[in-house]
């Protein structure tokens, strides 16, 4: 019996160590209120080109879910606010939603989470009574499909439901929501799910009437006379981001719950604003995002929970110019739709992406219409300004002599030259972005690391941990977690 107990202890310790060494990640939200939204395959190409391993969708966009298949990118799909009421009132509607938007895509699309609504308690409070019932119904549908261990259900909430977030140690949820939040936390605890938090230091600072210095919002060091300290715990807070996460942990604790991890489903900083939005600048956005990435990737939690990493999703991939509201509301993107970055994204001194497309190529799609390819080829080599000398007879890229191969070369040459000034990889739907270098030993495409005339060869940014086998390693690690958990439960039961 002592041996069995010892084996069980060793197994549980091994599980804990493996789980905790997987590392924190930074993912990205994909909003689609964009006038010139790229195709789903091009959006996924941008994610892959920049090693973004986690993405959140605001709905269950069929085109994106299909394009994300076989990529290993971990995906959170969204139940829209408009769908919450119907699902909350009808278990059959929940089952139909799961079958249509999850079962139909798993496992080729690596769906690992469902976000039920967005900030429901603070934006559509009349739907609050059915929020947790909707989550329960979705979870039961996942159980019926045997996906409840793979796909977790939660709901993103804003900081607005915590009226006084500072000092963090005294923070509590708005008492008018206590019943609903208690049910929510009980659900998360029962299903081993995370609390989803939308945390925006930009709003915390701009609405704070100068209470906190801007350095505190931007993760910048504070002089000793400006240190932010919780008077009750004497914890020092180096960023408003950490304080917001900790305020949420303390609010959860105030309702007698613990061991519910927090994932930040949205955070960011606008790069442009109106005349009355002086803090929405490209410089501040660059500082915030880069400092936030560095903060999250150090794998530590806030002062009260130092061992729980703060996995985080950037808001957002593109500027959503079709959104209503102030100018800043349209300016949260970190990429332009052509794949270049709005500002440099920095992962340390050696990891810098500047918007050059190193490692990203624009090629003709398989199965594209030949006439359209010919038109695109002619345009790229003519008005587009691509250098097409290499695909002329007798030149290195003439063979294979077919329109698809020649179009790929011309499309890519145009894209490498023009994408930083707005050029796109579309060509009437016949082109797509890829991270696979189309070069051969005799024909070198612009942008290739083998090209002396191509773009700068800079390391891609890594929004998340990447193993030696690239992005596919993340799926292996994710699957390993589930396998470890299943083996752990089985063996612990066996030895008890």
- What topology, given as strand order, has the largest sheet? 5-4-3-2-1-11-10-7-6
Number of domains: 2
Shape: globular
SS content category: alpha/beta
In this structure, how is the largest beta sheet organized? 9 strands, parallel
What's the architecture of the largest domain, going by CATH? Alpha-Beta Barrel
At the first level of CATH, what is the class of the largest domain?
Answer: Alpha Beta
Quick one: CATH superfamily of the largest domain? Glycosidases
Structural overview:
The chain has 496 residues and is of the alpha/beta class. The chain has 2 domains: 352 residues, Alpha-Beta Barrel (TIM Barrel), CATH 3.20.20.80; 74 residues, no CATH class. 36% of the residues lie in helices and 11% in strands. Strands 5-4-3-2-1-11-10-7-6 form a 9-stranded parallel beta sheet. The chain has a two-stranded antiparallel sheet with strand order 8-9. Helix 5 crosses helix 7. The N terminus and C terminus are likely disordered. Keywords: Cell membrane, Disulfide bond, Glycoprotein, Glycosidase, GPI-anchor, Hydrolase, Lipoprotein, Membrane, Plant defense, Signal. Its EC number is 3.2.1.39. InterPro entries: GH, Glyco_hydro_17, Glyco_hydro_17_plant, X8. This is glucan endo-1,3-beta-D-glucosidase. It holds the Pfam family Glyco_hydro_17.
């Amino acid at each position: 019996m002592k041996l069995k107990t010892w084996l069980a202890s060793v197994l549980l310790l091994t599980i804990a160590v493996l789980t905790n060494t997987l590392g924190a990640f930074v993912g990205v939200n994909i909003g689609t209120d964009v006038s010139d939204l790229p195709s789903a395959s091009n959006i996924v190409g941008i994610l892959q080109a920049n090693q973004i391993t986690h993405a959140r969708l605001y709905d269950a966009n069929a085109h994106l879910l299909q394009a994300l298949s076989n990529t290993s990118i971990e995906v959170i799909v969204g139940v829209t606010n408009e769908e919450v009421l119907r699902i909350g009132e009808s278990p059959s509607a929940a089952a139909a939603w799961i079958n249509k938007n999850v079962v139909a895509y798993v496992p080729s699309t690596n769906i690992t989470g469902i976000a039920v609504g967005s900030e429901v308690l603070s934006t559509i409070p009349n739907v609050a009574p059915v929020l947790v019932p909707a989550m329960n119904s979705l979870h039961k549908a996942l159980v019926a499909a045997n996906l409840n261990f793979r796909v977790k259900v939660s709901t993103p909430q804003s900081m607005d439901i915590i009226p006084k977030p500072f000092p963090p140690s005294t923070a509590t949820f708005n008492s008018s929501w206590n019943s609903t939040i208690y049910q929510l936390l009980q659900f998360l605890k029962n299903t081993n799910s995370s609390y989803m938090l939308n945390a925006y230091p930009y709003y915390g600072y701009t609405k704070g009437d100068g209470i906190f210095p801007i350095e505190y919002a931007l993760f910048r060091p504070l002089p000793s006379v400006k240190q932010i300290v919780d008077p009750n715990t004497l914890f020092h807070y180096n960023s408003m981001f950490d304080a917001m996460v900790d305020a949420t942990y303390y609010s959860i604790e105030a309702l007698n719950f613990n061991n519910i991890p927090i994932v930040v489903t949205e955070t960011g900083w606008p790069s442009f604003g109106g005349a009355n939005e002086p803090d929405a600048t490209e410089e501040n956005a660059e500082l915030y995002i880069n400092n936030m990435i560095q903060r999250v990737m150090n794998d530590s939690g806030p002062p009260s929970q130092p061992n729980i990493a703060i996995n985080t999703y950037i808001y957002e991939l593109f500027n959503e110019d079709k959104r209503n509201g102030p100018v800043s509301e349209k300016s949260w993107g970190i990429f332009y739709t052509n794949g270049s970055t709005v500002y440099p994204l920095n992962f340390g001194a050696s990891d810098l992406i500047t918007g050059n497309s190193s490692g990203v190529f624009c090629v003709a799609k398989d199965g594209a219409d030949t006439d359209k390819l010919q038109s695109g080829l002619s345009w790229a080599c003519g008005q587009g300004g691509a250098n097409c000398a290499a695909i002329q007879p007798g030149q290195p890229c003439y063979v294979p002599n077919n329109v698809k191969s020649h179009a790929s070369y011309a499309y890519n040459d145009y894209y490498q030259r023009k994408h930083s000034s707005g050029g796109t990889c579309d060509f009437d739907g016949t082109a797509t972005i890829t991270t696979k270098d189309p070069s051969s030993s005799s024909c070198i495409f612009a942008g290739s690391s083998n090209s002396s005339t191509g773009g700068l060869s800079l390391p891609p940014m890594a929004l998340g941990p990447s193993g030696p086998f690239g992005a596919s390693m993340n799926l292996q690690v994710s699957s390993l977690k589930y396998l470890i958990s299943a083996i752990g439960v089985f063996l612990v039961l066996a030895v008890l």
